[in-house]
Amino acid sequence: xxxxxxxxxxxxxxxxxxxxxxxxxxxxxxxxxxxxxxxxxxxxxxxxxxxxxxxxxxxxxxxxxxxxxxxxxxxxxxxxxxxxxxxxxxxxxxxxxxxxxxxxxxxxxxxxxxxxxxxxxxxxxxxxx
Length: 129
Hints:
By secondary structure, the chain is mainly α. Helices cover 47% and strands 8% of the residues. It is built from five helices and three strands; from the N terminus they run H-E-H-E-H-H-E-H. It has helices at residues 9-25, 57-66, 73-80, 84-96, 114-126; strands at 41-44, 71-72, 100-103. It has a three-stranded antiparallel beta sheet.
């Protein structure tokens, strides 16, 4: 703060960014850790004619981006230039309301054990040439 009681410009900018994120998310909390990873795929569930008009501009932007096919959470955050946490909150809200369909990433396959690898090798050796 300055002597005249005004807030210094660098603090004002920082405060505006924090307030903006809070306003965009409507104060909602982040979804659960496993709900949206960076590679979760998202697309719209309804066509544009059924899209409600009472969504925020950011929610409309997300729906517009997702209407042409699947995008990952990371891609949505990059294209919208919104913080990842804000995007996850918006996606969670839109998915709960039925406007989005999400597809979780495929879990990694279990690594083969040496026993399984040996059995495969023995099986291949037993095949006639």
